Amino acid sequence: MIKHSALLTIAFAVLAVCTLGRAQSAEPQEPSIDSTLALVRANMQADRDTLITTGMNFSDKDGALFWPIYREYAYERSKVDDRRVAVIKEYMQKYPNLTNAEANGMATQMLDCNLQLAELKKKYYKKFSKVFPALTVAKFFQLERRVDLMMDMQVEASLPPLTQAAQYAAHKDEETQTPQVIVAEPQEQ
């Protein structure tokens, strides 16, 4: 058990370093946002599959049952991820001139994606549970959660923090504010 856990930890570390290495080895030309996002997503999905294969360590029989359901899940999940990527792309294009309305819209879309992903996981928890014992299904979703966290951290680390945009917006607001005149009304005695 400890040996298996150590192997999984090493696999996480290797894949994290490999993904960072792939992201840093860019061509001399500046790649487009679309091509960069497509490459990162493909690499992340390959890494996800490798981690799940290593972490679940299925027999051939169990793997034959698991992978078709997983492919359905991954396909449906990719639709939710497409929406998340669209929001990230919009953020990258509009940063640091993001308005409050745009930030609100993007936050609402991301929260909606989170809800859709939770519903999708519930749906597939039921599907996997028809084939596998609860411990196996729970192990998969625990592993899935860990992979999600790792990959989300990689994405978030590559984005500029919104606090910088807020500081930029506050500075810009100070420049464009017109002074307000306050008129004191006489007090009655």
Offer a quick outline of the entry.
With 189 residues, the chain is an all-alpha fold.
Task: Please explain how this structure is put together.
The protein is mainly alpha-helical and about 190 residues long. The chain has one domain. It has six helices and no strands. α4 packs antiparallel against α5. It starts with a helix and ends in a 13-residue tail after the last helix. The relative contact order is 0.10.
What is the C-alpha radius of gyration, as a whole number of Å?
Answer: 23 Å
Decide which structural class fits the backbone.
mainly alpha
- Percent range for β-strand residues: under 5%
Number of strands: 0
Mean of residue pLDDT values: 81
Question: Helicity, in percent?
Answer: over 70%
Rough shape?
elongated
Report the span from N to C terminus. 84 Å
- Encode the helix/strand succession as letters: HHHHHH
Largest sheet entry: none
Number of helices: 6
Report low-confidence residues grouped into runs of 5 or more: 2-23
How many domains would you count in the coordinates?
1
Question: Key features?
Answer:
single chain, 189 residues, mainly alpha, 6 helices, 80% helix, disordered N terminus
Layout of strands and helices, then pairs:
Blueprint lengths: L1 H23 L8 H24 L3 H35 L5 H30 L4 H25 L3 H15 L13
Helix pairs in contact: 1-2, 2-5, 3-4, 4-5
